[in-house]
Structure formats: C-alpha cells, structure tokens
C-alpha cells in the first residue's frame, strides 16, 4: 500500500476531528459581539436565516467551484496531448488567459457594481461555459479566444461572487448569528471536498469516454445549473454607480488613499502569485524528489492531490476554530503574518532537503497556509474596502497578480535548478511581504 494512503487517512482524520470539534462548539450557537463585548445567543429565526443564506449561496457557488475543478486538471493535457500543440504554444495560451484577466480587472468590477453583482455572476457562468466549449475546436484561433474569455471569467469569479455574498450577508443582518470568517472558512472546506470529488468524477469521465473533452462538457452542465439557481434564489445588489473611466478612477482612488488596501494588494500579489508558481511546479518537484530517492515509478498524483486538499481544508477549519466569532482587523493581520511565515517555509524547505517525504510535507504545509489565507484575506478585504466600490476594488487588486504570473511564466524552464531558484525567490518575497505587513499590526 502506498504510504500516501496512510497520509491521506491521517489528514482526513484531522479534518473530521476539527469538524466535530467545531460542530460541538457551534452547537451552543453563541456569537461574540465585538461592540458590546458580550456573547449573543441568536434566535431560532436568525439560525434559520443563516441556513437559508448558506443554501442559496453555496448551492450555486459549489457548482461553480465544481466546474472549475472538473476541467482545470485537463487544460494543459488537452492542449498538449489531444491537440498536439507545442510547449511554446501552450504557454502562450496560458499567458493569454492571464493577460485578459489583467486587462479586464480595470473595468469588470466597476460594471458589476453599476449594473448588478448578480448579473455579473450570471455573465461569469456564460463566459466560462464558452471558454470550456472552445476546447472542442481544433482551430488555434478559437482556442486563443476561449482562453481570453476564460481569463475575463476568472476576474469575474474572484471579484463578483464574494462581493455579492458579503453585501447579501450584511443586508440580511446575519452578523449576530454567524461570523463572516466562519462563512469564508466553510467556503474553503467546501472547495476542498468538491475538488476531491471533482477530481474523481473527471477521471471517471475520461476513463469511460476515452477523451479529455468530457470534463469540460460536464463543467458547462454545472455552470448552467448554477446560473439557474442564481437566477431563482439570489437577490440583486449594487455598488456605487458611475460611468466608465469615472468608476475605474474611483476604484483606484479608494486603493491609493487607503494604505491598508495597498498592503492587501501587495499581499495578494505575492501570495497568490506564489500559489500559481506552486500549481505549475508541484507535480514535477514530486517526480524529481522520488527519482532522487531511487524510485522509478511515478508518484500517485491522485492520492497526493487529495492529501493536499485535505491540508487546505485543515487550514480553513483552523481559521474557524481559532476565530469562531467576528474577527477584528488586528487579529486578521496577525493571522496573515502566520500564513506568510508558513508559506515561505514551505517554499524554502524543499530546496534545502531533497527528500520525497520532506517535499510532500512542505507542500502540505503550503496548502495548509492556503486554507488559512483565503478566509483571512476575505475578512481583511471586507474590513477595509467600502461596499460601494467593493467589486471594482477587488478586480483592480488582481491586476498586478495577473501581470506577475505572466512574467513568471515567460521565464519558466523545466530544469531542477531553475525550479529551486523560483521556489527560493518566492520564499524570500513572502518573508519580505511578512516584514512589510508587520507595520499594520503596530499601526
């Protein structure tokens, strides 16, 4: 039996243990009121409101996440293997997606604020469906257009869904019944579970149909169902209205005038840029570490991926366990410092200890940091960004990230020395970011 089966059992046991602990703790139904500094017991009606909110939001969002995870693992393979494209062409396709995401970041959020965030989520479902269907074509220009549309969709995914959820949470008055941090943490746990099952479903579809296009078709079906649920169950909410350049300028002003938003933009750029680097290199790093150990067989990537998702879920659960109530700015920044420290260690260790187990557990440590990062970053953004300009600022915050990824991909090489250099640079950048963010704690 592969040792990774044991690792998966251990990590999944930790997920279940944390879930059980939180379930018992939250069974008391107490929330800490930061203003009154007292424990508040929500009413039955308030708890019912939370259940309805979770059902409305996560039923649709879960399908969107499933669509992403179903086709995500096959994007590179379908271009390289089924379409027979060169490595350079595949890299150009990936870069096209990030360039489109960077270019659209300036206006996508503004349009969503002006015309409605719910409409923005529906537009995402349409655009991402078109992007998935584009892989059915063998024409190169169609593939490039599909990647560009997909990049536009990704900007909407990260800018609009969370914006709609935060505003709806506020308008329904749910703060006395559940904290936003708990919702963000639940979102990470749900994403991890969906990622594992989507990976199994995608592999099963490919095995049955003997083509890697079927996960993309299944993703379109998920997006269509998500669009139906959004249309039926979601209310519309808006930001501050404005036209074209005025809206973009207002978003930029909100960022420049608020040093905390600039710090979060830097943190998002560095951490999420490192995440993209990790996604690109982790499988090859595992192969090299196994070869160094004298093993000739390939690592069980399905089990390894499941382990990484369990580590991410443990990170998300840890956030909710440590902060069951509403989280203040100072607490969230302190948590982000922990995230950056863990992530930097996870990048540097594999470059110093060339062993398979060390590489694997370093990657698990990084995914644990990822699980902590998302609810922490979401909490910080909620605290420092005004709701009137939320979607446009969220979109603008992703612009430098997408440009950084394009630059990183343009210098990518396949040799081990280059990969270790990239990991070391990412680790150092995370350390520097941690030091700069420390100022926020002492503000």
Automatic annotation (TrEMBL):
Main localization (coarse): membrane
Keywords: Cell membrane, Ion transport, Membrane, Transmembrane, Transmembrane helix, Transport
Phylogenetic lineage: Eukaryota, Fungi, Dikarya, Ascomycota, Pezizomycotina
Keyword Transmembrane in record: yes
Function of the protein: Mediates high-affinity intracellular uptake of the rare oligo-element molybdenum.
Annotated Gene Ontology cellular component terms: plasma membrane
Transmembrane spans: 6-21, 57-76, 88-108, 120-138, 144-165, 177-201, 213-231, 261-281, 301-320, 332-352, 358-375, 396-414, 420-438
Domain of life (superkingdom): Eukaryota
Its membrane topology: Multi-pass membrane protein
Protein name: Molybdate-anion transporter
Localization: Cell membrane
Gene Ontology process terms (BP): monoatomic ion transport
GO molecular function, one term: molybdate ion transmembrane transporter activity
InterPro entries documented for this protein: MFS_trans_sf (IPR036259), MOT2/MFSD5 (IPR008509)
């Amino acid at each position: 039996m592969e040792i990774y089966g044991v690792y998966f059992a251990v990590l999944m046991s930790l997920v279940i243990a944390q879930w059980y602990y939180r379930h018992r703790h939250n069974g008391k139904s107490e929330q800490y009121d930061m203003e009154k500094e007292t424990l508040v017991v929500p009413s039955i009606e308030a708890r019912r409101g939370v259940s309805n909110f979770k059902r409305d939001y996560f039923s649709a969002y879960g399908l969107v996440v499933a669509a992403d995870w179903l086709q995500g693992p096959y994007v590179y393979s379908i271009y390289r293997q089924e379409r027979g494209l060169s490595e350079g062409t595949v890299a150009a396709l990936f870069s096209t997606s990030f360039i489109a995401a960077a270019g659209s970041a300036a206006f996508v959020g503004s349009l969503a604020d002006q015309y409605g965030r719910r409409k923005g989520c529906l537009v995402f479902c349409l655009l991402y469906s078109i992007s998935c269907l584009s892989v059915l074509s063998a024409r190169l220009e169609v593939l490039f257009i599909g990647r560009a549309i997909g990049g536009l969709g990704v900007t909407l995914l990260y800018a609009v869904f969370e914006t709609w959820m935060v505003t709806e949470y506020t308008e329904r008055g749910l703060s006395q019944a559940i904290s936003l941090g708990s919702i963000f943490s639940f979102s990470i746990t749900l994403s991890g579970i969906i990622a594992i099952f989507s990976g199994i479903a995608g592999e099963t579809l490919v095995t049955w149909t003997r083509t890697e296009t079927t996960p993309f078709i299944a993703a379109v079906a998920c997006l269509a169902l998500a669009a139906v649920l959004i249309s039926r169950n979601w209310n519309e909410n808006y930001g501050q209205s404005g036209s074209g350049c005025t809206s973009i300028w207002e978003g930029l002003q909100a960022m420049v005038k608020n040093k905390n938003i600039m710090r979060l933009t830097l943190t998002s750029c560095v951490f999420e840029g490192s995440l993209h680097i990790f996604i690109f290199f982790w499988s090859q790093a595992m192969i090299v570490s196994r070869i160094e150990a004298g093993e000739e067989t390939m690592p069980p990537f399905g089990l390894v991926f499941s382990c990484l998702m369990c580590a991410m879920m443990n990170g998300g659960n840890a956030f909710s366990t440590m902060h069951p109530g509403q989280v203040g700015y100072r607490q969230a920044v302190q948590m982000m410092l922990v995230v950056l420290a863990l992530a930097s260690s996870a990048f540097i260790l594999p470059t110093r200890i060339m062993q398979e187990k060390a590489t694997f557990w370093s990657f698990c440590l990084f995914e644990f940091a990822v699980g902590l990062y998302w609810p922490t970053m979401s909490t910080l953004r909620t605290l420092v960004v005004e709701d009137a300009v939320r979607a446009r600022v969220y979109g603008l915050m992703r612009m430098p990230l997408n440009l950084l990824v394009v630059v990183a991909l343009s210098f990518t090489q396949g040799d081990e020395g280059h990969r270790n250099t990239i990991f070391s640079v990412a680790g150092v950048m995370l350390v520097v970011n941690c030091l700069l963010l420390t100022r926020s704690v002492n503000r």
